[in-house]
Specification:
Elements lengths: L1 E2 L6 E5 L2 E4 H23 L6 H26 L2 H6 L14 H17 L6 H8 L3 H14 L14 E2 L11 H20 L8 H17 L18 H21 L2 H17 L1
Parallel strand pairs: 1-4
Antiparallel strand pairs: 2-3
Helix pairs in contact: 1-2, 1-6, 2-4, 4-5, 5-8, 6-7, 7-8, 8-9
Keywords: Cell membrane, Membrane, Transferase, Transmembrane, Transmembrane helix
Function: Catalyzes the transfer of the diacylglyceryl group from phosphatidylglycerol to the sulfhydryl group of the N-terminal cysteine of a prolipoprotein, the first step in the formation of mature lipoproteins.
GO cellular component, one term: plasma membrane
């Protein structure tokens, strides 16, 4: 059994302002992802300017925050927020859903692409997808520091006694998610996207990879206390991941069939016809 390091969730203080590790790591992940995407954009078969990457990351950050909050409210604690509607705005109190954040990012990329005719919607998703695990991985480290989202009771040699989890040792599921959703998924997507791929394939691989990793980790992660198991032995995280596991391969198959490319060619031809 390992001992939880009991790190202070408050990173440091600037006068009256307290900087928490969660927020600090999210900022760091945003900076790292932006720098990596700028470098990647120069090598992309569809080049991205530095200013375009920064604009895209701004859209994505807003989409992830708003989508993550709305998803948490709807899927994880709706009765509470119906009774306390103003608390929906209290983002600093915690409560974010990855699946909601993902939908927010997709919407943000769509809005971004509408104003950038040189960058279509699906290629934009393919471009941003390999950078998402950077934020996921550091976010799970922040969960570990905050003593939250720990695993179920276990007597494995690396199990830990989390202060908020009672006296029994538990699986460090945050570390599992950091390694799978963060490190491994990043490596898979970064390597796969080095070469030009069919439109939609990189995004489809992200959807499938995250869905599988999250579904597996949920078997050892403690279910949300306000929900418990929602469908037999399945948690809400698993229920929300099942569509991703199904949809991901469908997207990849359709991408390699050339379906998305044909749709974009038809859209481009329609725009050119309107311009004439």
């Amino acid at each position: 059994m390992l001992h939880y390091p009991n790190i202070n969730p408050m990173g440091f203080q600037l006068g009256p302002i307290t900087i928490h590790w969660y927020g600090l790591l999210e900022i760091i992940s945003f900076v790292i992802a932006t720098l990596w995407l700028i470098r990647r954009g120069r090598r992309s078969h569809t080049p991205w300017k530095k200013s375009e990457v920064v604009d895209l990351e701004f859209f994505v950050a807003i989409g992830a925050i708003l989508g993550g909050r709305v998803g948490y409210v709807l899927w994880y604690n709706l009765p509470y927020y119906v009774q306390h509607p103003l608390h929906m705005l209290y983002i600093w109190d915690g409560g974010m859903s990855f699946h909601g954040g993902l939908l927010g990012v997709v919407l943000a990329c769509w809005l971004f692409a509408k104003g950038k005719p040189e960058h279509d919607f699906l290629p934009t998703l393919d471009f941003i997808a390999p950078a998402v695990p950077i934020g996921l991985g550091l976010g799970r480290i922040a969960n570990f520091i905050n003593d939250q989202l720990f695993g179920r009771v276990s007597h494995l040699p690396w199990a830990m006694v989390f202060p908020a989890g009672g006296p029994q040792p538990r699986q460090p599921s945050q570390i599992y998610e950091f390694l799978l959703e963060g490190v491994l998924l990043f490596l898979i997507l970064a390597i796969y996207s080095r070469r030009p791929r069919p439109i939609g394939a990189v995004g489809g691989l992200f959807v499938f990879g995250y869905g599988v990793f999250r579904f597996l980790v949920e078997f050892v992660r403690q279910p949300d206390i306000q929900l418990g198991f929602v469908l037999g032995p399945l948690t809400m995280g698993q229920v929300l991941s099942i569509p991703m596991i199904i949809l991901g391969p469908v997207i990849i198959w359709w991408a390699y069939r050339g379906g998305f490319a044909k749709q974009e060619e038809q859209s481009l031809a329609a725009l050119e016809a309107q311009a004439e």
